[in-house]
Design goal:
Strand order of the largest sheet: 2-1-3-5-9-14
Helix content: 25-40%
CATH superfamily: NAD(P)-binding Rossmann-like Domain
Structural class: alpha/beta
Low-confidence stretches: 63-67, 71-79, 251-268
Strand content: 15-25%
Radius of gyration: 20 Å
Number of domains: 1
Shape: globular
CATH architecture: 3-Layer(aba) Sandwich
Number of helices: 10
Length: 318
């Protein structure tokens, strides 16, 4: 039996759907039903219930739209976070296996082969970097779970990074910019749809259904505990996503997605995490997951047909 914290959040809802689909017995918990942010409450609950696994989806941050989407009049919900240390301590003392759903937005940039040497670039919004990626995408690699974070954590992720020895007794599942077929504000595709303009960048992305399945597959396979980057293989650019939005939108939008030299108003992007994550560890564990572009195209194909995008331009940084 599995206990799911934060079952009413968008990540929690994804886990709920998948667990029901698998016929798993689980208890979906919300803070309205049980204040599990308090150590004594959670400790007592786990001691009584004795679950086989606890999944903490309650600490996943409700970021403002990532990746340089500029939205007008849209507020991001920010539920009170649950400290990973509180959950870790309660699980440790009750000997409960657990998993923490974290954000992969702790890196900035990517690794690139340049003149037969591997180096790190921290800004994947620069035009010359985007051009290099377009020409030789295979030269770009992602950060692995062993790489030290190089981007300032936000919205509680500093706490998640400090779990330390807990990584030997728990899973830490790092998601990135989430999307799915559901047309809701947390969905990256929905955010792009409502943006006035978008800064181009290279990013790893996570299809919610695919990545939730990958996490549960890790548990079912009894893969070793530790940190796992959980994204769809293959980074994508915002330009690529927007091209797919315009190609598949019905009715077809009046605006179009300009490229390269057609951009006449360069702007500096907001300071946000844009990065590529390496998912080799996930794949080596035997988990199967679709490539990012395949998942994006499938999501757009099955999203509501009234989703014609408002975006008419992509903005490149100076």
């Amino acid at each position: 039996m599995i206990v799911l914290l934060g079952a009413n959040g968008h990540i929690g809802q994804g886990f709920s759907r998948e667990l029901r689909g698998r016929g798993e017995t689980f208890i979906p918990l919300t803070q309205e039903g049980l204040d599990f942010s308090r150590f004594e409450v959670l400790f007592d609950y786990l001691r009584r219930v004795k679950p086989d696994l606890l999944i903490n989806a309650a600490s996943y941050p409700a970021f403002p739209p990532e990746g340089g989407c500029e939205l007008e009049g849209i507020e991001t919900l920010r539920p009170e976070p649950v400290s990973p240390q509180t959950v870790a301590k309660a699980c440790l003392l009750t000997k409960t296996p657990w998993a923490h759903v974290a954000s992969g937005s702790v890196y900035s940039g990517a690794k690139i082969f340049d003149n037969a040497k591997l180096r790190i670039i921290t800004d994947v919004t620069r035009p010359e970097v985007l051009s290099a990626y377009a020409a030789h995408p295979d030269n770009f690699l992602g950060f692995t779970e062993k790489d030290a974070p190089n981007f300032k954590p936000q919205n509680g992720q500093a706490a998640a990074l400090n779990l330390g020895a807990t990584q030997d007794t728990a899973y830490i599942w790092r998601f990135r910019m989430t999307f799915s077929e559901d047309w809701e504000p947390w969905n990256l595709l929905w955010q792009l749809h409502h943006a006035s303009h978008v800064h181009d960048a290279i990013n790893s992305v996570s299809h919610l259904g695919d990545c939730v399945r990958a996490c549960l597959d890790l548990w079912e396979r009894r893969a070793p505990y530790g940190v796992y980057n959980v994204t769809n293989p293959g980074p994508v650019t915002h330009q690529q996503i927007l091209s797919e939005l315009h190609r598949t939108a019905k009715p077809r939008p009046r605006g179009r997605c300009p490229i390269g030299s057609e951009i006449v108003q360069p702007l500096s992007p907001p300071v946000r995490s844009n990065c590529i994550l390496d998912v080799s560890k996930l794949l080596w564990a035997g988990v199967k997951i679709r490539p990012a572009m395949e998942a994006l195209r499938h999501a757009l194909k099955h999203a509501p047909k009234t989703r014609a995008t408002n975006i008419t331009r992509v903005v490149f940084s100076k």
